[in-house]
Amino acid sequence: MAKRQQQNLDEGVNMDSMMDNMTNVVGTLLLVLMIVQMQVNDKAGQIEESFASVTQDDLNKAKKQLETAKMASNKAVQTKPRWMRKPRPRPRTCARLKAPWNKRASKFATLRR
């Protein structure tokens, strides 16, 4: 019988393709990061320019709108929608709860004994 050739597990596995893929992913992430950073800088500049043109009247109007929105949200929190309210008990159910000596209760009481 021929002897099996023992594989040497100490030899390194070729990982070049994995390194290529990882390098491509890191490069792509860096490009995305740079593009997002440039867009954020542009938007920050636009926001600063818009703040320069705000007058005191505009600021007062915005404060008024904020107050009305707060009042509306408080009112919405305090009043529950109809589907969240507990249903009122029916008079028939209340009568059963108040008077356990009615026919049903006595029927169940006799069954338990």
Essential attributes:
about 110 residues, mainly alpha, 4 helices, flat
Structure, explained:
With 113 residues, the protein is mostly helical. The protein has a domain at 89-113. Helix content is 69%, strand content 0%. It has 4 helices and no strands. The longest helix is centred in the first third of the chain and has 37 residues, at 16-52. The model has no long low-confidence stretch (mean pLDDT 78).
List the helices and strands and how they pair.
Layout lengths: L15 H37 L3 H23 L12 H8 L4 H10 L1
Task: Briefly characterize the structure.
With 113 residues, the chain is mainly alpha-helical.
* Mean model confidence by pLDDT: 78
Question: Which stretches are low in confidence, meaning pLDDT under 50 for 5 or more residues running?
Answer: none
* Strand proportion: under 5%
- Would you report the number of β strands? 0
What percentage of residues falls in helices of 4 or more residues?
Answer: 55-70%
- Please write the string of helix (H) and strand (E) elements: HHHH
| Count of runs of 4 or more consecutive helical residues | 4
Calculate the terminal CA-CA distance, rounded to whole Å. 88 Å
- Rg measurement, Å: 38 Å
Largest sheet entry: none
Structure classification: mainly alpha
Q: Shape, please?
A: flat
